[in-house]
Design goal:
The chain is mainly β. The chain is built from two helices and 18 strands. The protein has one domain (about 10-260). It starts with 10 loop residues before the first helix and ends with a helix.
Amino acid sequence: MNGVYVPFNRCLDNLTRFIRPLSLHNPGSEYPLSVKGTCFLSTYRGRQFVLSTKHQLRGGFEPGNVCTWIDEDRNGHKIMVSPYQAATISLGNDPSTSFAEDVSIFEFPSSKYEGERDITRNFFDITTANELAGIDQNNIICMFTVGYPSLFTEYIIDDADIENVKVKELKSLYSRIFLQTAADIPSMEFHRSMRIHRDGPVSISYFDGFSGSPVFFVHQDRGKQCHLGFSGIIRLGANEIFHIYEASYLQRILDTYIEMIC
């Protein structure tokens, strides 16, 4: 994981620092933050990005409203950081390509906060990550996603003063879902389809909030060593089926973005 070996049974705990609720600032509202699904903190070619889907910003939100929980300070308070660049994808006016354009890119500076706190450790490097397409399916141990479903998000209200009700806390919990390939569902050019694993534990059946969630897999090499791979991010999920933007497509998009701004 980012070049560091971790015990298999600690894989999930270590991955959660790369996966956050997509938080949006509500200026002038008594509810200062909204949560619109999940986002993935990733590094590509030495640059820090938060990846999500474009449709998560529906409802009047703009890229400037995004403020991502990157880390915690010494007192346990969340450090929220806004991106300094944002971009979406356009492939022209052909309606047949609209499904491929539902990606949002937010770039974050490689900065230090709280003195020497380096936030880059909380971004997962997808530059050379193993991709699902290059792995023998027989060597895959498991595939899973981690996201922040809307059912597990709530405002904690301080109503001690009934005339001055305040939001005390925004609480958002993550959920893990095991997946398997869905060979019976035709995959589109930029998508891979997966379904909930038939033998995996399922703690949720309403999948709103999983858009933007990364999908990982664990596979073995010839020496039976386990390795972590990155399959992509979820665009849509319903009826136990998830449509995923593949890692190779996301890399293509990021290559185009980097070339455009350089």
